[in-house]
Amino acid sequence: MGKVYLIGAGPGDPGLMTLKGKSLLEHADVVIYDALVSPPILAMINPQAEKIDAGKRRGRHSLLQEETTQLLIEKAQHHAIVVRLKGGDPFVFGRGGEEMEDLMRAGVPVEVVPGITSGIAAPAYVGIPLTHRNYSSSVTFVTGHESAGKYRPQVNWQAIAHGSETIVIYMGVHNLPYIIGELIAAGLDAQTPIALIRWGTRPDQEQLIGTLATIAQQVEETGFEAPAIAVVGRVVDLHQTLATVTLPPIIQA
């Protein structure tokens, strides 16, 4: 029996890939990767390794979740190093916990290699610190896209609105009008700043800055699309000051 490594590929910039993750990719026998893993990260994979696309995007699933887990179990029975490569971090809206549970129940050795999640990296690359002593002392990470049949039917947006000073929303572009309506109904000022960041840390990174009152119309007018992270809170205003000094160069593999 081999071992499965749940590896976070980070948000896209290959310079943000961990050294441990890179080393495992270079020695892997099999790599099962997601749709959001960037091409420079995929280029790090051992040329002799078997590569399997298990990517899930809105309206298109290469493999069902159950099929992916079963594939990991089967590959571990024949190969020493099996990598499950996920965008961002496996345990932050990446289903890594679900896959690890299934693997352990099947008796498959498994190890997690954390990655930098896009909810932290994407704002940083556009000059938005999630915390700042003068603006925000708390952050909430929340999904804007919930699966059917989950443990709880919906996010409690009223609690989210009052729970912290900065809100980071994953996978929220498609439900943005609904989410904004819920936040405003919960008491957030319609003039609260919001930033949408698409393909954060990558060469084709895009950002859209507005307020809760304007952002939905801006998305419609510009054709801004997923995948993107949304940041809500006063820290977004720091983008105007910090964007020109905090953007690191994109490191090419």
Description of the structure:
With 253 residues, the protein is of the alpha/beta class. 30% of the residues lie in helices and 22% in strands. The strands form three sheets. Strands 3-2-6-1-7 form a five-stranded parallel beta sheet, with helices on both faces. Helix 6 (157-163) crosses helix 7. The radius of gyration is 19 Å and the shape is elongated. It starts with a strand and ends in a 7-residue tail after the last helix.
Largest sheet: 5 strands, parallel
Count of alpha/pi helices: 9
Helix vs. strand class: alpha/beta
- Rounded to an integer in angstroms, the radius of gyration calculated over CA atoms is 19 Å
Count all strands and give the number.
Answer: 12
Helix and strand topology:
Blueprint: E1 3-8, H1 19-27, E2 30-33, H2 39-42, E3 50-53, E4 56-57, E5 60-61, H3 65-76, E6 81-86, H4 96-105, E7 110-113, H5 118-125, E8 139-143, H6 157-163, E9 166-170, H7 176-185, E10 193-198, E11 206-211, H8 215-222, E12 228-232, H9 239-246
Parallel strand pairs: 1-6, 1-7, 2-3, 2-6, 8-9
Antiparallel strand pairs: 4-5, 9-12, 10-11, 10-12
Helix pairs in contact: 6-7
